[in-house]
Amino acid sequence: MIMISNVVIAIVLIVIAAAAYFINLFRGKEEDSVSNTLILTGISLIASGIPAISDAVVDCIFQLLSLQSLENEGGYLFRAIIGLALVVLGLALKVNLKKRIYVLNMYGIAAQKDIDEPKALADLKLAEHKVKEQIIDFVQLFNGGTAINPTSNKAICKQIENAAAKFSAKATEQKKTYFTGMAPIPYTVYAGTFLETAKIEQYFEYNAHDGKYYSLKSREKNGWENLAVTFPQSPDASVTEIVLAISISHKVRDTDLSQFSTDLVHLSLNTPKDNVIKNIKQLKEYKSVMDDVIQNQLIAKYPNLKTIHIAASIPSCVSVELGKIIGMRTNRMPDIVIHHYISSNIPCYVFGLHVNGANKGELC
After folding, report:
1. What's the CA gap between 134 and 140, in Å, rounded?
2. 10 Å Cβ neighbour count for 290?
3. Do residues 9 and 48 touch, judged by C-beta distance below 8 A?
């Protein structure tokens, strides 16, 4: 009978579809599980539309159950058409998924913003269904940073490590992976050390003055300020620790660094200001300068250098790229500590976070 034959084929297809779905989930391919299941089910239906294959499957199952084989009288073309439709639908879904963008968003301060909010989507000219956002939220744990302690710091660092590992795995599979965040600089740099192999294609920055998000432009454009290094007039080559002040968003003033009793090295724009980085090429240039200063120039001036204390006023895109520099060369650099600034506090830098070396992830 046609009905019994179709029921048998349907049961086989359900088993195949369920197996395909759960295999994809087990492999961590949850976004692809539906499209892959549709394609495999469609192919199976097309195959069942070929009389020889369909009859063979039904006969095999009936023999396994010791039942009398049935005379299959048709239904092949209908199954093949449905199968083709499922394959086309699965392929269309897979292509659409490839166009999605994956955003890692870090929340560390109270003024967090979701990229998938209607206003942010409008600012960035993105379609909601094409945005997959992964959020690292440690606002409550950080609590403004004034009472950070080893326990809360350990929890934050572990959360960042796990999220960064997940995002890095995704970044190796997808073409469009972005980063944004409003989080303390020490933890954003720390996240960057775990994203050293992740290809982050674009950054979203938030302009607090007009309340809008913007993405860094990908086209090449000249005209930005140079990031320049300034050493003390008479560097003390004997010191084992120095302070590197990086001023891009705001000027890091010597008066704010009075708690440090060692040489101060400045890496600064002539006129630091918020949202000064507009271009991917500009970001790459600043990253190259930071890399050269940390890797080469500091070591040349301070041959006994063991620890670099970094006090920085930088946007999230620079924080991540700084972390990636450190992560890529973690075994060839002195210990690096990133300090957190609170203007109302005395001293201004309330804690530091080790971002490499044996003490990575610990407070200073």
Report:
1. 18
2. 24
3. yes
Token readout for 22 is 């759960």
- Residue 310: CB partners within 8 Å, gap ≥ 6? 189, 243, 244, 245, 246, 322, 336, 337, 338, 339
pLDDT tens digits, one per residue of 176-219: 788 888 899 999 999 999 988 888 888 888 888 888 888 888 77
**Spatial CB neighbours of 289, under 8 Å, sequence gap ≥ 6:** 226, 227, 229, 267
Q: Six-digit token pair at 12?
A: 């086989």
Residue 17 · residue 1 · CB < 8 Å = no
Structure tokens at 95: 């292509």
* Average pLDDT value over all residues in the chain: 78
Residue range 275-305, pLDDT digits in tens: 999 989 999 999 999 999 999 999 999 999 9
Biggest alpha carbon–alpha carbon distance for the chain: 98
Q: Both tokens of residue 281?
A: 């090429």
Three-class DSSP labels, 326-345: HHHCHHHCCEEEEEEECCCC
Q: Vertex 271, ends 268 and 272: CA angle to 5°?
A: 65
The answer to whether 224 and 281 have CB atoms below 8 angstroms apart is: no
Write the single-letter amino acid at 139: V
